[in-house]
Amino acid sequence: MRILRDYFITIITFLILAGCGESNTTQPHSTTQPTTISAAASAPSTLQQVADNAVENNDVSGIILLSQKGEEEAHIVASGIDIQNQPLFKIASISKLFMAVAATKLANENTLNLQDTVAIWLPELASNIANLETATLKQVIEHRSGIPDFDSQPGFSWDHPHTDTSAMLKFIQDKPADFSPNAHYEYSNSNYLLLGMVMDVALGFNHEKYIQHEILNSFALQNTFLQQADAPQEALVTGFWDGRDMKAQEYTIPGGSMVASADDIGVFIGALNRGTLLSEDEASIYPYFYEHTGWLPGYQSVARYDAASDTVIVVFTASTGGNSSTVTEKAFNQIRNIARQ
User: Fold this and answer.
1) I need a labelling partner for 223 at 20 to 30 A (CA). Which of 90, 125, 126, 309 fits?
2) In the structure, how many helices (H) and strands (E) does the chain have?
3) How far apart are CA 24 and CA 307, in angstroms?
4) Are 303 and 94 in contact (CB under 8 A)?
5) 301 by DSSP, 3-state: which?
6) Per-residue model confidence as pLDDT tens for the chain (341 residues)
7) Is the pTM of this model over 0.85?
8) How far is CA 57 from the centre of its chain?
9) Torsion angle of alpha carbons 74, 77, 78, 79, nearest 10°?
10) All domains of the chain in start order, with CATH
11) Distance between CA 318 and CA 239 in Å, rounded?
């Protein structure tokens, strides 16, 4: 099933992130092109109006919105979700930003070399997973490795929890490469599963501990958790996939496992884009995006920075299926328009 990949490609299109060759820029940036802001009288003028309009769609059970401009405090609103006690959300592939930052820091410390091939660190997998002997860690981070995506293989289903990395690897063993390394860009969740394994070997311990110490603790992200099981379950928002309650379904695979509050993700995206997360040397080698989207059954998210208005925007939609992705896209565009006024 290609739900996650298809969603990511769709949402990246609206975020205008298709130019992945720009992902290795050394400066924080926004890839959004200038847009004309509609002055239509019907356009919402506040975040709360955007949120309330979103849940009028029957395919959206609840939504959390954050806008944080310049030096101002973050403005967080919701509709259909109680936000009084810092609700947590499955951020899915936004987790990849944390991993890319961690890999960059390790490279800057000379613990990793991003020009190493995956096989240097995981030789036991090289004989039956395509491109491990030729794809570099940098290409893995950039989704330019050509390594097949496990969630696109026959037998994979989002109807089930995914908590076994070995089981995910079996989906891509003895499968042909999607393309030669660096031939082009194609999103693959296998890349970050393998990146997590490489960092574990390089560190000699679980890379999640490194992310906790170097990123979460350093920026006081107390409402961000590396795994759903680590988070207070009563604070986790209930998400629905075509009407089914997906809160209990776990996904522990590196690159999609994290849980966080909108406020914490706003702080992280702001630090990444405004130059306080990476040192000058780290920024010069950082190879990935400065913004991301996420999708897991029942949970979809957008986390990005609009340079034109110096605004961090986060959208957490507690529904997937139906028209929920269209509603999420519309909400993001409306918040950006408000920020640029």
Assistant:
1) 309
2) 11, 11
3) 17
4) yes
5) strand
6) 434 433 443 444 443 333 332 333 333 333 333 333 444 448 999 999 999 999 999 999 999 999 999 999 999 999 999 999 889 999 999 999 999 999 999 999 999 999 999 999 999 999 999 999 999 999 999 999 999 999 999 999 999 999 999 999 999 999 999 999 999 999 999 999 999 999 999 999 999 999 999 999 999 999 999 999 999 999 999 999 999 999 999 999 999 999 999 999 999 999 999 999 999 999 999 999 999 999 999 999 999 999 999 999 999 999 999 999 999 999 999 999 999 99
7) yes
8) 25
9) -160
10) 3-340 (3.40.710.10)
11) 4
Contacts of 47 (CB under 8 A, 6+ apart): 65, 67, 75, 77, 335, 338
Which stretch of DSSP H or E encloses residue 225?
strand 224-225
Which of the 8 DSSP states describes residue 214?
I
Q: CA dihedral in degrees (85, 91, 97, 100; nearest 10)?
A: 110
| Spatial distance between the Cα atoms of 304 and 293, rounded to a whole number of angstroms | 8
3-state secondary structure of 181: coil
Distance CA 124, CA 279 (A): 34
Residues paired with 69 in a beta bridge: 311
> What single-letter amino acid sits at 149?
D
